[in-house]
Amino acid sequence: MNPGPAANPGSAVNPGPAASSGPDFTPWPAEEAARYRALGHWRGQTFGTWLSGLAAAYAGRTAVVGVSAATGEQVRWTYAELDERAHRLAAGFAARGIEAGERVLVQLPNVAEYVPVLFGLWRAGALPVFALPAHRHSELVHFASHAEAAAIVTVGEHERHDYAAEAHSVADEVAPVRRVFVVGSDEFAELAATEPRELPDPDPGAPAFLQLSGGSTGMSKLIPRTHDDYLYSVRESARICRLRPDSVYLVVLPAAHNYPMSSPGILGALHAGSTVVLSPRPDADTAFALVESEGVTMCGVVPPLAAAWVQAAARTTRDLSTLEVLLVGGAKCGRELAERIEPALGCRLQQVFGMAEGLVFYTRLDDPDELVLSTQGRPISLDDEIRVVNPDDPEASAADVVEPGQAGALLTRGPYTIRGYYRAAEHNATAFTADGFYRTGDLVRLHPSGHVEVVGRVKEQINRGGEKVAPEEVENHLMAHSGVLDAALVGVADAFLGERTCAYVVPVDGAEPAEAELRRFVRERGVAAYKVPDRVVLTAEFPTTGVGKTSKRELRAVLADQAKNG
Ligand code: OOB
């Protein structure tokens, strides 16, 4: 049954409905919050009022260029048009029963409507939950039920997948979901044409949306980001990346991911009065055509895509001369690749190392080449507290710092890094230190300049070319197969993606499930394609390490070692 909106989504003490575990939102301590406000980091502004300000300042300039889900044609909307569309959508969502504080699962590809829908939900006071287009049934059910989403916003058929049918089947399974809105449908056109009306502005200190974590133990966690904290990171990102009203930012990665959303991304570009161009696909042919036709000046990519573009640039006939900056991040950009970007694409490389939980590092555009090529940058804010601590102790406190220049586990606390995941009390107890530092799980080395170099990780996560895979989640799917006794997923080095996944599987006595069968089985359990193991290796038994029962963590380490050496 639908329990309705949480009583007070911004409150730390709200335990949420009985089904949930832990508070919705862990606020910053009052003193810290007061300091961030006094410093002007948090300005008490919501996304809705922020857009109104942008529309006033840049009314006739082009805000969004993209393919419309409704017509399949490219559209161009000015800031004034974007603002009006968002007002109408907000009124439309409200008229259809979406209440302030309710969560709405959003699964949209890079279509033009993505931007006004986002602001429409924000103005209605709803909290978007950002699924990626790659997510499938089991993931969507998890997000919708954990967030107790009241509705789903999606598209119809897209890239040979029926998103609307998928959303309806999720709605059938997850009781709180009352509505499915299909962008591009006639019904949605009616909603989008609703007469605008004043709606109460949400609390800027309360969560504005829920991002997804990459996940390490089990399924992705939900990340509550507030208007105040996120807008601070957006303004600073726009400044650091030197976006201007005549900049043109191209979105090639899935728009809902934190990186193209805010580093500096769609929101950073809007903050500067720039134009946001949404590319339906990330391939060089599509993207280069848009660079030429729209005069793109900036784009953010993951390392494998940067490598593909470097190759494609050698034989393209497109004019890429407007491109000034290519951001590369989401996974480690190796030195060799880093060195090839500027000569091949004729633009400045900017490395970015960030996380949906908050903290973002950028190399600066005027940093010496050596730092740009060999580090992942320095934090956005002087108020980002950075600690590099003993990597061998998963419970290391912020005081257990390593010697200067040594590699260690990165902990952080600051004005735009969360203090807790959404409804995840148990996980929060280990993911954060007692004094509120987030354990990023990344292994880094700090340079005297304040720049960091990512040298590895201590968390149980595989980074497949920027797409994050939690081993436990995939192992659980494999173990649901009747022929599988046990499974362990490890990352193996890959020249293109950085890492690929390899599943080691112990079959039940007498069974011999084929690799293709197991891969299909995982896919058909309803998971994103990037989580389907790249390889499956059957093994009679798992190696034991030392005494007693092997922990999955140790086992993965041993298997990863075997994969590397064998
Ligand atoms: C970005 O966000 P997420 O939440 O998908 O993943 C965060 C994790 C980091 O903890 C780190 O393990 C890895 O992705 N990562 C990098 C990296 N950028 C992210 N590892 C090495 N080098 C880099 N440059 O991936 C994200 C969010 C905002 C901006 C950029 C990336």
Please characterize this protein's 3D structure.
- The chain has 18 helices and 26 strands.
- The protein has 566 residues and is an alpha/beta fold.
- The chain is globular and about 65 Å long.
- Residues 214, 258-259, 263, 329-332, 351-356, 360, 376, 440, 442, 454, 457, 463, 468 line the site of 5'-O-[(R)-(benzoyloxy)(hydroxy)phosphoryl]adenosine.
Structural class: alpha/beta
In what range is the share of β-strand residues? 15-25%
Helical fraction equals: 25-40%
Mean pLDDT: 94
Low-confidence region ranges: 1-20
The end-to-end span amounts to 53 Å
Oligomer, anyone?
Answer: single chain
Give the strand line-up of the largest sheet: 2-1-12-11-13-14-15-16-17
Spatial extent as radius of gyration: 23 Å
The number of distinct helices, counting runs of at least 4 residues, comes to 18
Ligand kinds: 5'-O-[(R)-(benzoyloxy)(hydroxy)phosphoryl]adenosine
Can you count the beta strands?
Answer: 26
Largest sheet: 9 strands, mixed
Tell the overall outline: globular
Please outline the helices and strands:
Layout lengths: L29 H9 L8 H12 L3 E6 L6 E5 H17 L7 E5 L6 H10 L3 E4 L6 H11 L3 E5 L1 E2 L2 E2 H11 L5 E5 L2 H7 L14 E6 L9 E5 H14 L7 E4 L6 H5 L2 H7 L3 E4 L5 H11 L3 E4 L1 H11 L11 E5 L5 H11 L2 E8 L2 E5 L6 H6 L3 E2 L5 E5 L17 E7 L11 H7 L6 E9 L5 E6 L4 E3 L2 E3 L1 H9 L4 E11 L3 E10 L7 H10 L10 E4 L13 H14 L1
Parallel strand pairs: 1-12, 3-4, 3-5, 5-8, 11-12, 11-13, 13-14, 14-15, 25-26
Antiparallel strand pairs: 1-2, 6-7, 9-10, 15-16, 16-17, 18-19, 19-20, 20-21, 22-23, 24-25
Helix pairs in contact: 2-3, 2-4, 3-4, 5-6, 8-10, 12-13
